[in-house]
UniProtKB/TrEMBL annotation:
Keyword Magnesium belongs to the record: yes
Domain TrmE-type G: 216-365
Protein name stated in the entry: tRNA modification GTPase MnmE
Keywords per UniProt: Cytoplasm, GTP-binding, Hydrolase, Magnesium, Metal-binding, Nucleotide-binding, Potassium, tRNA processing
Subunit structure: Homodimer. Heterotetramer of two MnmE and two MnmG subunits.
Gene that produces this protein: mnmE
Metal-binding among keywords: yes
First-tier enzyme category under EC: hydrolase
Residues annotated for K(+) binding in this entry: N226, T245, V247, T250
One of the record's GO molecular function terms: GTP binding
Taxon lineage: Bacteria, Pseudomonadati, Pseudomonadota, Gammaproteobacteria, Chromatiales
Compartment(s) where it occurs, according to its Swiss-Prot or TrEMBL record: Cytoplasm
Principal location: cytoplasm
This protein's GO CC annotations: cytosol
Length: 442
C-alpha cells in the first residue's frame, strides 16, 4: 500500500564535511528526478558513476547513483541514493537541483514514517532506527539493533495476541450462558489471566531496562556535607571533575558526569550536602539536590563511615531505589563489603567501587555482560504498564463478581494499549509527534 503521492528528498549524512555525502530520494518520481539530474540510471541495486547536473546543465558534482525500486526499499517506495562528495555546499546544491526537478524537502523522520506507513517496519522498529543512531554505548547500540530487527515487537505482539485469544474464548463462553457458570468457575480462566499478568510483568521489567539503554540512567549522589560525594563522583568518572575540600558545603551547583556502567550510559549528578543553613547560596544548592533526587532513576546516599551521627537523611523519596554507600572505610578501618543495597567503599583508595557497580547492575536489571535484550522507550513502558492495569482490573472483576463481560472488556483494553507500541492502534496525532522528533533525512 503506497500512501504518498509526492517525492521527498533530504541529505542523509550528518551536517558537516566528510569524504562522502548521501542524498536520498523517495517517492513515485524518484527515478524520473534522478534521471534529469544524472542521465540514464543503472539497473536496480547496482552502483554507477554519474555526473550530477542542475536544470541549466551545469555540473555540480560527480558520484555514485543507486536505485532501489519499491517495495523492496527502506521506505517501500522507489528510492534513489546519490553519493557525492561530503561538502555541505555541494550537497545543498544537489538537493536544490532535486527540488527544481520536482522533489520536496523532507521533514523530520519522513523517510521512517513512510517505511512505517508502507508496512516495512512497525512503529517500535522505526523508533529503534532513531535509537540506534542516537545510541551512547555499544550495548545500547546492540540492543537498539535487536529492537530494529523486531525482538521487542515480537514479544509485545505475542502478549497482545494471547490477550485477544483469551478474550475470544471468554466471549464465546458468554454466548452459551448455560455453560458460562462452569466455564468461569472452574478456575481455568483465572489461571490464564494470572499467566498473562505474569507475562506482562516480565515484559514490563525488560522494557524498563531497555528504556534505560535508550535514555540513559540518572543517578543522584546525595548525603550530608563532607560525606565524600564529590570524591565519589571523581573516583567513578576517573577524573577531577568536582572540587573536593575539607570544608563542608563545598558543592553548591549540581555537577553532571556521564560514565558507562555495564554498558549503560549513566549520568551521575553530584549535589550539595543536605543540611539546614542560613547561607543563601548553599540553601539554593540544597534545594537543587532535593529536586535532583526526585528526578533520579537511582539514588546514591553517601554516608561518612567515620561519622557516628550518620542518621537518616531527611526527604529521601520513597519512590526512587536507594543504594546506601558508607564511604571513607580507609579511615574507619572497615573492609569493602556489600549486603544487599548497602556497600562500604573508599572514594580515595577506590576499595569497594567494583561492588558498587555490581549493585547498580543488579538494581537496574542488567545482565552480566551488560545491557538488556532490546531497547525501548518510556512510551512503551507506559503502554505495557497500562495493559497491566487493565489485566489486573479484569482479574479483580472476575474474582469479585465472576463477570465474564467485564473481564473481556478489560482484556480488549489491555491489547489495545499494547497496540499503541507497534502502531496498530496509534492515533495520527501521536504518530506525528513521534516522527517529528526524528532528524531530517531519517
Ligand atoms: N580518607 C578519606 N577521605 C575522604 C574520602 N572521601 C572523601 N574524603 C575527604 O573528605 C572531605 C570531603 O570530601 P568531598 O568529596 O568534598 O565531600 P562532599 O560530600 O562532596 O562535601 P560537600 O560538597 O561539602 O557536601 C575531603 O577532605 C576529602 O578528601 C575517603 O574515602 N577517604
Ligand atoms: K566538602
Ligand atoms: Mg561536594
Amino acid at each position: 500500500m503506497n500512501h504518498s503521492h509526492d517525492t521527498i528528498v533530504a541529505i542523509a549524512t550528518p551536517p558537516g564535511r566528510g569524504g562522502v555525502g548521501v542524498i536520498r530520494l523517495s517517492g513515485p518520481d524518484s527515478t524520473a528526478i534522478a534521471e534529469k539530474l544524472c542521465g540514464p540510471l543503472p539497473s536496480p541495486r547496482t552502483a554507477a558513476l554519474r555526473s550530477f547536473r542542475d536544470p541549466e546543465g551545469a555540473t555540480l558534482d560527480s558520484g555514485l547513483v543507486i536505485v532501489f525500486p519499491g517495495p523492496r526499499s527502506f521506505t517501500g517506495e522507489d528510492v534513489v541514493e546519490l553519493q557525492g562528495h561530503g561538502s555541505p555546499v555541494v550537497l545543498e546544491m544537489i538537493l536544490a537541483a532535486c527540488v527544481d526537478f520536482g522533489a520536496r524537502r523532507a521533514g523530520p523522520g519522513e523517510f521512517s514514517q513512510r517505511a512505517f506507513l508502507n508496512d516495512r517496519m512497525d512503529l517500535a522498529q522505526a523508533e529503534a532506527v532513531a535509537d540506534l543512531i542516537a545510541a551512547a554505548t555499544d550495548t545500547a547500540a546492540r540492543a537498539a539493533h535487536r529492537s530494529l530487527e523486531g525482538a521487542f515487537s515480537k514479544e509485545v505482539d505475542g502478549l497482545a495476541e494471547a490477550l485477544v485469544a483469551l478474550r475470544v474464548w471468554v466471549e464465546a463462553a458468554l454466548d452459551f450462558p448455560d455453560e458460562e457458570i462452569d466455564f468461569l468457575a472452574d478456575g481455568q480462566v483465572a489461571e490464564r489471566v494470572a499467566g498473562l499478568r505474569a507475562r506482562q510483568e516480565a515484559l514490563l521489567e525488560r522494557a524498563g531496562t531497555g528504556r534505560l539503554l535508550t535514555s540513559g540512567v540518572r543517578i543522584a549522589i546525595v548525603g550530608r556535607p563532607n560525606a565524600g560525594k564529590s570524591s565519589l563522583l571523581n573516583a567513578l568518572s576517573r577524573h577531577d571533575a568536582a572540587i573536593v575540600t575539607e570544608v563542608p558545603g563545598t558543592t553548591r551547583d549540581v555537577l553532571r558526569e556521564t560514565i558507562t556502567i555495564a554498558g549503560l550510559p549513566v549520568t551521575l549528578a553530584d549535589t550539595a550536602g543536605i543540611r539546614e543553613t542560613a547561607d543563601r547560596v548553599e540553601s539554593e544548592g540544597v534545594r537543587r539536590a532535593e529536586r535532583e533526587m526526585h528526578a533520579a532513576d537511582l539514588i546514591f546516599w553517601v554516608v561518612d563511615a567515620t561519622d557516628p551521627e550518620a542518621h537518616p537523611l531527611p526527604g529521601l523519596p520513597q519512590s526512587v531505589p536507594l543504594i546506601r554507600i558508607d564511604n571513607k572505610i580507609d579511615l574507619s578501618g572497615e573492609s569493602p563489603s556489600r549486603e544487599g543495597r548497602h556497600v562500604r567503599v573508599s572514594a580515595v583508595t577506590g576499595a569497594g567501587l567494583d561492588l558498587l557497580e555490581q549493585v547498580v547492575t543488579e538494581e537496574l536489571g542488567l545482565n552480566e555482560s551488560g545491557g538488556g535484550e532490546y531497547s525501548a522507550r518510556q512510551r512503551h513502558v507506559d503502554a505495557i504498564a497500562l495493559a497491566g492495569e487493565h489485566i489486573r482490573r479484569g482479574q479483580a472483576e472476575l474474582d469479585a463478581s465472576g463477570s465474564g463481560e467485564l473481564l473481556a472488556e478489560e482484556l480488549r483494553l489491555a491489547a489495545d494499549a499494547l497496540g499503541e507500541i507497534t502502531g496498530r492502534m496509534t492515533s495520527d496525532e501521536l504518530l506525528g509527534r513521534i516522527f517529528s522528533s526524528f532528524c531530517i533525512g531519517k
